[in-house]
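stage 2 :: seqdesign
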């Protein structure tokens, strides 16, 4: 079997793979994929539409035959690829499983072997006296960049949880926020009185009304999109998350609007929990909230 060329690039759907740099990108944004799953993906892309048996793949991954349980290793690698591509075995868009035989890449693949990658173009345009940075320094910079952004969890960092649990928790969080907004708007007179000792009470009061009015339809959208599993809901919610983050942090102060009814310490404890809430929502989206339900295809 012919392995993929070391300088080839492949494009399929919204994804692009560069065999030279070992990168998978979705619309220009890098998608994390470990070395072995990436090697399997490159092998499938080099033979689109062809059946690759588990034995074929294992010979490429472990040519010296040191790996014994190759079926589990290949199956695990394919699962990692499907997670990165948001693909499913039950309804494959990219990788099809042929029972007890192997795998086949079913989407159209465009080979970009004749094009130079952006990083290569940058090196070619440099002056003759400049030398390209060694691969070690590039890898070190990439590792450092990943470490700086590691404060946010990735899909690989999160536990596998039943879809019903993830879906229910996400919907409950949206209902909680809707309750805050509606409760605030229905008690404006009491809240205005509570804010009156502040120096800019009128400004704070207006911000509360405007943000609540704006966020109510946003929460309704998130609730309905996840409940009815709208197409590409994961990508839409992840793009929306950075915009909602400052507003969610601002509304984590909402327990203090209830100081006429609860103790200051209780309000402070609730606020601390609410600060984590937007990050919990992001994790639930990465864990599969709103993903399409797997459809079983009857075998005839």
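stage 2 :: out
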């Amino acid at each position: 079997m012919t392995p993929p060329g070391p300088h080839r690039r492949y494009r399929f759907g919204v994804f692009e793979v560069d065999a030279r740099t070992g990168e998978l990108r979705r619309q220009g944004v890098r998608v994390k994929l470990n070395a072995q799953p990436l090697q399997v993906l490159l092998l499938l892309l080099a033979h689109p539409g062809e059946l690759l048996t588990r034995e074929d793949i294992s010979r490429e991954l472990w040519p010296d035959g040191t790996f014994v349980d190759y079926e589990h290793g290949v199956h695990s690698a394919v699962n990692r690829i499907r997670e990165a591509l948001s693909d499913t075995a039950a309804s494959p868009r990219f990788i099809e499983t042929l029972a007890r035989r192997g795998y086949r890449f079913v989407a159209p693949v465009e080979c970009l072997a004749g094009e130079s990658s952006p990083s290569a173009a940058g090196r070619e345009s440099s002056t003759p006296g400049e030398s390209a940075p060694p691969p070690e320094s590039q890898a070190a910079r990439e590792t450092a960049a990943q470490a700086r952004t590691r404060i946010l969890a990735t899909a690989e960092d999160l536990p596998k949880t039943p879809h019903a649990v993830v879906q229910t928790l996400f919907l409950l969080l949206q209902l909680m926020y809707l309750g805050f907004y509606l409760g605030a708007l229905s008690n404006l007179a009491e809240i205005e009185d509570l804010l009156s000792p502040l120096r800019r009470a009128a400004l704070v009061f207006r911000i509360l009304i405007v943000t609540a009015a704006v966020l109510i339809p946003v929460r309704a959208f998130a609730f309905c999109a996840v409940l009815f599993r709208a197409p590409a809901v994961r990508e839409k919610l992840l793009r929306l998350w950075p915009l909602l983050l400052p507003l969610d942090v601002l509304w984590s102060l909402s327990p203090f609007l209830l100081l006429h009814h609860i103790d200051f310490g209780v309000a402070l404890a609730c606020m601390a929990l609410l600060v984590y809430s937007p990050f919990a929502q992001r994790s639930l989206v990465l864990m599969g909230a709103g993903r399409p339900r797997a459809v079983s295809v009857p075998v005839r």
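stage 3 :: structure notes
- The beta strands are 9-12, 15-18, 23-26, 29-31, 52-53, 95-98, 102-105, 110-111.
- The mean pLDDT is 81.
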